[in-house]
Amino acid sequence: MFQWLFGIARNFGFVRSIQQGYIYQQKFSLVNVKLKWVKDRTLDAVVAGQRDLKAAGILVSIIYSSSECCLPIYHLSRHRGQLGLPGDLKLSTFIRRYPNIFIESYFRDTGGSPVPCFSLSPEALELHREEINILRQSQFSYVHLPDDRVGLKLLFWDDKLAISELQKNAFLQQKADDIKIGSLAFPISFTRGFGLKRKCMEWLKEWQKLPYTSPYINASHLDPRTDVFEKRIVGVFHELLHLTLHKQTERKNVSNLRTPLALPQKFTKAFERHPGIFYISKKSDTQTVVLREAYNGLEPVQKHPLVQIREEFASLLKKGLLDRSRGVYKKCKDTNLVEGLRKEVCIAEKTNQLSPKDESGSMFPEYDSDGPLQNPC
């Protein structure tokens, strides 16, 4: 596939057009245009629940990585900073929202007081195992160093090896004229009811015709005060979001990339100036940048198998929250007995089905126990 794409690129003279574009692109100054933010309920629905999904997924990984698939609340609380939950929300309260994911039991501390302890339900265990299997199947295994070396150093870089998603789509759609002159246009769509003034429409049309600079090449020659440089910034984050599973990320995550990507101050303003390419959702008390072209309504255009697992996990969270509000889950006297049997099954499955290497291959961060537990669960 890549050889075919590179062949098309050479036939259309894509590499030469990039070099020729450098001659005139400095002439384009930065136009001061501000576009209003308009709420997109569909993409807000896509973002909603991501915070709880992430936190629950991390907790599942932490509990699963423990020797007995069960941890007391004080152990889980050590990882609270990585969950992204509101400061006024108790961790135990969050966990108890989803009784079909986390099973609660108790043990007595040295003072005789009951201490909450949480393990995973069979449904959560099954989804987590599916996730690990998917990761294991997609692990890169084409390069193997027989002498146990774990790293490679790149001595020479070939520019033809890097092709952005926008370039790939242009090749696949055979946009010969755009490829030759190097002025690739980004896919654009607006929220229903978005009113774009004539002046803004004309600016956007001209902006799309500007030279496109690949995020994989050195752009130090570009003047940061030009629209061409801004188009390069848009191209960088267009590519970055395409590399993520959900084609979205919190705005604060990209704010930390200014230095490594050699970007100017306030570079995230590009998200606000181009609402037809990016949507900024303000759900869950944060700002999340979503790539518009990656979604067709509520569904992603291309769905990674891990995204399917996360959607099933999100459905499980929603069902557990709803059932809990209906009083479906009731505690019984035999909770600890049932929990003990379930733990034995979990440990046996981990021992028989997964190697230590596989257990660490989780989509969510995993953590080892900080110390041995005195059979708390």
What do you see in this structure?
This protein is mainly alpha-helical and 377 residues long. It has a domain at 50-138 and 304-359. 44% of the residues lie in helices and 8% in strands. It contains 16 helices and eight strands. It has helices at residues 2-12, 14-24, 41-47, 50-65, 73-76, 91-96, 122-137, 165-172, 176-181, 198-208, 227-242, 251-255, 269-273, 305-325, 335-353, 356-359, and strands spanning 70-72, 102-108, 114-120, 248-250, 278-281, 288-291, 295-296, 299-300. Strands 1-3-2 form a three-stranded antiparallel β-sheet. A three-stranded antiparallel β-sheet has the order 4-6-5. A two-stranded antiparallel sheet has the order 7-8. Helix 7 (122-137) packs antiparallel against helix 14 (305-325). The longest helix has 21 residues, at 305-325. It is globular and about 75 Å long. The chain starts with a helix and ends in an 18-residue tail after the last helix. Mean pLDDT is 79; it is low at 12-26 and 353-375.
